[in-house]
Design brief:
alpha+beta, PH-domain like, 2 domains, globular, cytoplasm, Neuroepithelial cell transforming 1, guanyl-nucleotide exchange factor activity
Length: 482
């Protein structure tokens, strides 16, 4: 009887024993608590958590660093399905959003004018942003880089390619925080900030290599996510409170998004600075300096991304390789379109060439197989087709079937008779169609030295050639049936 009672006690103990809360593979194991632990949601691949680009979207380059794509405001972690209906979502780690004025007592606050309070709020926002950036960079190293290296799931060389030189960026922002702290008076205000920023800004040139490498780094990270061990590690991090529902790439992209905020932050400080304040001239100079730095970073990034895609082009025939490709330094835009037969094409508009490709995979490496012959921009003709003017499904078949009339379509062709090619391209919506048209017209105007609309006459000439080509096709088909 006693033995049976003991066995029942053991069964009850194991039945109600609380699970260990493993929130990070390298974080200390927490003590058991009365709270229920959310089971780890299972996903096939973390790549699926990232919102894919919409078909036909135009990805533009070579303008400003702000043109670099931002992440969706909806967190990837929100798309996960909880494996338990009763378990609540993991709480996010919230940042302290205290304003400068909230650090003052009522008496102190009454000694400052409303304009001075707004100026100090803007300076404090710059300071707090640096603090947050340092925290995120340190987190990226301690919670992601170092554990993955210790677990040997990604090599040290690959991690250096993905993370960049974090050790150089953290002291850079700590230096600005220290200088702002030193200039803070007993009343909590910073009298002058312009010269501090002027002396500090040249250090941001360290981000030139980081931003230039982002495209290749993101591609490598996506490739490594196919590894089950990397998937599991990143998933555990995403489910942990420290991640704030942000994935690893969000943390790695934070420095870039911080760079584009500096002109806005400095302008906000300047806006609340009195015209006779000695900081006005220094702030104006600082804004000019940061804009020049961002312009240089953007040029480097554009050239790097252009070369990245050029290296991924695959030619079926050496004759497809136009010598102009070696002169291309700018990728104006690119994206997925469909041709008249409905086939998917990835189209690249370089500064010198328009290249149509088919995305393919070779030995687990994604590349772009060049379709037909690249068209030099100087020989390019463009025609904006009206909705319903053509039918998709092939030029010949569409003439004898009742297929749907296409919307959001334009045609590109070569004015050079030796190329003898024309491509009718379909975009998903009118917005992206207009983006493509604007990019093409701008490129043509630069290469051909004519107003953007001047090529419409050439497009009409090409349209007449298409009619002749269609007539010849019908005649050849009819002759083969005879």
């Amino acid at each position: 009887m006693i033995i049976l009672v003991c066995m029942e006690c053991l069964l009850l103990f194991f039945k109600f024993k609380r699970p260990i809360n493993l929130q990070h593979p390298y974080f200390p194991i927490s003590e058991p608590s009365n709270k229920r632990v959310r089971p780890l949601a299972k996903v096939s691949s973390l790549v699926n958590l990232i919102s894919p680009s919409k078909n036909g979207a135009v990805r533009r380059f070579g303008q400003t660093i702000q043109s670099m794509s931002l992440r969706d405001s909806k967190s990837p972690g929100m798309s996960l399905k909880a494996s338990s209906k009763t378990a609540g979502p993991t709480p996010t780690k919230r940042r302290n959003s205290t304003l400068w004025s909230e650090t003052l007592d009522v008496h102190q606050k009454s000694t400052f004018s409303a304009k001075e309070i707004k100026r100090q709020e803007a300076i404090y926002e710059l300071y707090r942003g640096e603090q947050d950036l340092i925290e995120d960079l340190q987190l990226a190293r301690k919670a992601y880089h170092d554990p993955m290296l210790k677990l040997s799931i990604i090599t040290e060389e690959e991690l250096a390619h993905i993370f960049g030189d974090l050790d150089a960026y953290i002291p850079l922002h700590e230096d600005l925080m220290m200088k702002l702290t030193e200039e803070t008076g007993p009343d909590g205000t910073v009298a002058q900030i312009g010269q501090i920023v002027i002396n500090w800004l040249p250090g941001l040139n360290a981000y030139k290599d980081y931003c230039s490498n982002q495209l290749a780094a993101k591609a490598l990270l996506d490739q490594k996510k196919q590894d089950k061990r990397v998937q599991d590690f990143l998933q555990r991090c995403l489910e942990s409170p420290f991640s704030r529902k942000l994935d690893l790439w969000s943390f790695l992209d934070i420095p870039r998004s911080r760079l584009v905020k500096y002109p806005l932050l400095l302008r906000e400080i300047l806006r609340h600075t009195p015209p006779d304040h000695p900081d006005v001239a220094s702030l104006e100079k600082a804004i000019t300096i940061i804009q020049e730095i961002l312009s240089d970073i953007n040029i480097r990034k554009g050239e790097s991304e252009c070369q990245y895609y050029i290296d991924k082009l695959e030619y079926l025939d050496d004759r497809q390789r136009d010598p102009l490709i070696d002169n291309c330094k700018i990728l104006l835009c690119h994206g997925e379109l469909r041709n008249k037969s409905g086939s998917r094409l990835h189209v690249f508009l370089f500064s010198e060439l328009l290249v149509l490709t088919r995305p393919v995979t070779r030995n687990d490496r994604s590349c772009f197989q060049v379709y037909r012959q690249p068209i030099p921009v100087r020989d390019l003709a463009l025609e904006d087709l009206q909705d319903g003017e053509i039918r998709m499904g092939g030029s010949f078949r569409g003439a004898f079937t009742a297929g749907e009339k296409a919307k959001n379509v334009f045609r590109v062709s070569s004015l050079d008779p030796s190329h003898g090619q024309s491509h009718t391209l379909h975009v998903n919506d009118v917005y992206h169609k207009q983006q493509w048209l604007n990019c093409l017209r701008t490129a043509m105007a630069q290469q051909q030295g004519a107003p953007p609309r001047a090529q419409q006459g050439g497009a009409k000439l090409r349209k007449n050639s298409d009619v002749c080509y269609f007539t010849l096709t019908v005649m050849k088909l009819w002759k083969s049936l005879m």
